[in-house]
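Anyone? Bumping this.
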Amino acid sequence: MSSFLYFIRQSLQGFRRHMSTSLGSVITIFLSLFIIGVFLVGGAVVDNIVKSVESEVSITAYIADGTSDSDIQQFEQYVRGIDGVASVSFTTKDEALESFRNMSSNSSIVDELDGENPLPASVNVELSDPQQVQEVADSIASNSLFQRICDEPSNPQNSLKYGQKTVERLFSVTNYIRYIGVALVVLLIFIALVFINNTIRLAILSRRKEIAIMRLVGASNGFIRGPFLMEGALDALIGSLLGVGCLELLRRFALPRLQDALTFLPIDVSGGMFGIIYVSLIVAGLIIGLIGSALAMRRYLKV
Amino acid sequence: MRRPAAAHSAHARQVTSQLSASLPVLDVDDIPQQTGTPVITFDRVTKIYPAQPNKPALENISLQIYPGEFVFLVGHSGSGKSTLVRLIIRELKPTSGTITIANEDLGSMRNWRVPYLRRNIGFVFQDFKLLPNKTVFENVSFALEVIGKSRHVIKTQVPEVLRLVGLQDKLNKYPDQLSGGEQQRVSIARAIVNRPPLLVCDEPTGNLDPQTSRGIMDLLERINRTGTTVLVATHDREMVDNMRRRVIALDRGHLTRDQQRGVYGFNV
């Protein structure tokens, strides 16, 4: 226990003695972990969005203006008969405009239309099994009645909107972001390791005399290594706490604004999720610090 | 005579007890008796540095040093004195042959045990190896601190040992405020503060004038009288001739002479 306190004292002293290099590694750790954290939070947000889109997998079939009620009813009848369809409802042009007005943050756009309504009426198809969305959509598109009454008769597929496409598009975008994120994170961790390694190397070199004497009087290897490991861990801990602090600021102040700007996307990430991210960032920081200083010791501290 | 407390404690302590148990009570004018288990045994030890494969630094050295002895190790530069010292503290391993210190074979000793070996050997060097940013007291207490001794032990042992070397008034001075002889006394105090049964000195008077050297040698002799085995590597001819202790002479890696009450014996 007393030697643990000794390690802490020594590492604090080392930190003060090599302020500039220590700060260098603190800042690199901080930036790396902060960016990793941003990507993790971003990932959680995207997951949320993907899930909400997936849960809302439904098919909207746009109907051409001026289609007779009987055609619409007949079409609804047909759709109800398809396997995997849970319910069918009809949205008139006016209702579509109203819901657009509610969803959009900028309702004045609607007022500027001067009573014109560009939105088509639609039949909304809820599915009992989201997996079947493609089959149901295909059978609607191949229906001759739908081909006649759909909003864009030249290409009936275009008059169908369903979640799968959104999800796929979302995935292709998020996958790219993820790859970039992983590459960036790996690079940053590498840089952080190099910095910690260098800081500890300097600490070891500046204490060469002390280390030589410790060895002569029989200090155990662990006792000689302890302060340096502790110093690396300390740098990393300070860096990761800074990173977590910045993430928390982001969560408090930036996320609500983002949510206000993008009302149609469910951005909100649970506090538990943030807790997990924070803890794993601090653990990751400590591991980086320990590995970095262990690497330096392997090379510069032969005991 | 074995102290019962040490008998069943950690191995390092056991080594201490074995060493001190067999220490003969020495009168200065006595010829040291070579009794008991040798503290240091070299058995046909050869050390070849990889850089000079054709010129062994030590070749076929066999010697035994017994508890309580005061031994001079003499020879010119490059004769292998330092190599021998570094083999004793296991900074180096012999190319062939075995070295036994306090019944322990250094060749088969695991690396993690080496610090515990060194706790039983005090070291004094020509260049003192003091930490310039620590006071005299701190330099000595550092040696106890890093082997995990309690504050209580430090507070009692450090002033005691500094009194022994005659520096009780300079506890709070820094090394650069001391003379060379005083600095060497600090380093001797550091070497013996843990009460090791064996004290190894590599050219302890190499940087000091003859009068100061005499003082250092007196101190080493006094330490030897308390039962500590002392091995001094030196080329201080006057010192060796005056003290008439056991002399082991090395010449180009070979042991050329080993005599009781010897003299320096090289024509310089």
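Late reply, but here is one note on the structure posted above: Confidence is low (pLDDT under 50) at residues 1-28 of chain B.
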